[in-house]
Write a structure and sequence with these properties.
Strand content: 5-15%
Shape: globular
GO molecular function: calcium ion binding; mannosyl-oligosaccharide 1,2-alpha-mannosidase activity
Largest sheet: 3 strands, antiparallel
Number of helices: 16
Distance between the termini: 54 Å
Strand order of the largest sheet: 5-6-7
Structural class: alpha+beta
Helix content: 40-55%
Protein name: alpha-1,2-Mannosidase
EC number: 3.2.1.-
InterPro entries: 6hp_glycosidase-like_sf, EDEM1/2/3, Glyco_hydro_47, Seven-hairpin_glycosidases
Number of strands: 25
Subcellular location: Endoplasmic reticulum
Radius of gyration: 26 Å
């Protein structure tokens, strides 16, 4: 018998959202300007409370008005909030924080850090801020965006993570010591998302610095997961990175798996990589075949497809936004509306929600001010303009302010049933939740640029087009300008092409020389010896690399304006 969901009647008569006093008559769309200012006030209440009570610790404890380190002692909230400052228009504070981070953040510390969290929050936050620095009025150094202090900090942090990838499978450990590498007793069991959530940051880093090691390890990890999928096309939740054996075999789209799927899509868009998109589309078929029921997504056994947990997790609420990126708007909206009913039932999304029972799951009743449903609303509003999506934004603002706001910031909601609070304000509240709310209500923000305006930057490699739009958000909502990747990649790839031509020329000369030695007694021809010449071992012709699915190189040479077309942050030449 096919599995069917029984939705309780109580869900039909959901509680009214908390928006008393909101402007406009009942049933009309919320006023974006009003809520935009409300969101900005929320940000500064939380941000100022962090600076006054918690800096330089990672995060604010809003009930006791102090701070604590959570993910590695990086002043994490400051890094996570940096690009949000610019999106809200505060260039002076952005500039000040850039100086503070350069003076205070040190990655040479004896701390065990999450590889996943350090990547998405620290590396992602620094890369985004680096690429936005010029727009924020920071005086950038010569060679930017291919060099700069924030880029060097991001590279330093990422190099601290590389030892985690030194496993037989190429899939990384979940934790690394920033000073000593992977601890000898470290568990080899890592969640799927902790393995497959690097390609956005690491490919960006490789493109900007010219060092391919970052993108290479991220791609290997992605491919090992792909090769580890079950016969029915699903992946589990946790895997042993030493043996490649699945430890937790629950398959779904939520916690422990979520950003793996997200990064296949976003990596494909960022890098114009057809193979990554093809991988996601294959997963999407299996997900729809085995986990999709009545516009909900359940958890199933990865080898059999049988339902293991008929629950909705709040982290799954990113999925409608991801569907919108591949153009599946109708399915995205139907699923979004299911999730929105849960929000209206509780004034937030509980971590786990039992779908057949229509209620929270024991010990999973909390809401730590997560952004995922708001994130999906922002994407879908950009795609459809449906005012229902603004209503979710209004409800989020009203609920968070009514339930979560305290004297020193905004507190995690420990239990949505009685609104008890917990003494923590996660850094993602400022990095993601507030940012997505603000962008939902700010249709003209520079992040939403459709390519009609852009900045032209002269670099040592030629003219570079930036700020044309098409920003790719990492899973911590740090926007990456895809055009920047081509600004720095061009010189390296052109240099490799020239080197290969020269080496081919020398190889031909050597072949002719050997042929001549059969008839003429003379010494072999050799290129001039000396430092950096092609006779040195490091300059021998590179082995041919396996073909990789990627779009043709998009470069930005100097040319008349009429020969350019800015599209999604990339510059296509007339000849392309």
């Amino acid at each position: 018998m096919p599995f069917r969901l029984l939705i309780p009647l109580g869900l039909v008569c959901v509680l009214l959202p908390l928006h008393h006093g909101a402007p406009g008559p009942e049933g009309t769309a919320p006023d974006p300007a009003h809520y935009r200012e409300r969101v900005k006030a929320m940000f500064y209440h939380a941000y100022d409370s962090y600076l006054e009570n918690a800096f330089p610790y990672d995060e604010l404890r809003p009930l006791t008005c102090d701070g604590h380190d959570t993910w590695g002692s990086f002043s994490l909230t400051l890094i996570d909030a940096l690009d949000t400052l610019l999106i809200l228009g505060n260039t002076s504070e952005f500039q000040r924080v850039v100086e503070v981070l350069q003076d205070n953040v040190d990655f040479d510390i004896d701390v065990n850090a999450s590889v996943f969290e350090t990547n998405i929050r620290v590396v992602g936050g620094l890369l985004s801020a680096h690429l936005l620095s010029k727009k924020a009025g920071v005086e950038v150094e010569a060679g930017w965006p291919c060099s700069g202090p924030l880029l060097r900090m991001a590279e330093e942090a990422a190099r601290k993570l590389l030892p985690a990838f030194q496993t037989p499978t190429g899939m990384p450990y979940g934790t690394v010591n920033l000073l000593h590498g992977v601890n000898p007793g470290e568990t080899p069991v890592t969640c799927t998302a902790g393995i497959g959530t690097f390609i956005v940051e690491f490919a960006t880093l490789s493109s900007l610095t010219g060092d391919p090691v970052f993108e290479d390890v991220a791609r290997v990890a992605l491919m090992r997961l792909w090769e580890s999928r079950s016969d029915i096309g699903l992946v589990g939740n946790h895997i042993d990175v030493l043996t490649g054996k699945w430890v937790a075999q629950d398959a779904g789209i939520g916690a422990g798996v979520d950003s793996y799927f997200e990064y296949l899509v976003k990596g494909a868009i960022l890098l114009q990589d057809k193979k990554l998109m093809a991988m996601f589309l294959e997963y999407n078929k299996a997900i729809r075949n085995y986990t999709h029921f009545d516009d909900w997504y359940l958890w199933v056994q990865m080898y059999k497809g049988t339902v293991s947990m008929p629950v909705f997790q709040s982290l799954e609420a990113y999925w409608p936004g991801l569907q919108s990126l591949i153009g599946d708007i109708d399915n995205a909206m139907r699923t979004f509306l299911n999730y929105y009913t849960v929000w209206k039932q509780f004034g937030g999304l509980p971590e786990f929600y039992n779908i057949p029972q229509g209620y929270t799951v024991e010990k999973r009743e909390g809401y730590p001010l997560r952004p995922e449903l708001i994130e999906s609303a922002m994407y879908l509003y950009r795609a459809t303009g449906d005012p229902t999506l603004l209503e979710l934004g209004r409800d989020a603002v009203e609920s968070i302010e009514k339930i979560s706001k305290v004297e020193c910031g905004f507190a995690t909601i420990k239990d949505l049933r009685d609104h008890k609070l917990d003494n923590r304000m996660e850094s993602f509240f400022l990095a993601e939740t507030v940012k997505y709310l603000y962008l939902l209500f700010h249709p003209n923000n520079f992040i939403h640029n459709n390519g009609s305006t852009f900045d032209s930057v002269m670099t040592p490699h030629g003219e570079c087009i930036l700020g044309a739009g098409g920003y790719i958000f990492n899973t911590e909502a740090h926007p990456i300008d895809p055009a920047a990747l081509h600004c720095c990649r061009r010189l390296k790839e052109e240099q490799w092409e020239v080197e290969d031509l020269i080496k081919e020329f020398y190889s031909l000369r050597q072949s002719r020389s050997r042929a001549q030695r059969k008839t003429v007694s003379s010494g072999p021809w050799e290129p001039p010896a000396g430092p950096g010449t092609l006779s040195s071992p490091e300059n021998q012709p590179r082995e041919k690399q396996p073909a990789r699915q990627r779009a043709p190189l998009l470069s930005c040479p100097s040319q008349p304006f009429t020969s350019k077309l800015a599209l999604l942050g990339q510059v296509f030449l007339d000849s392309s």
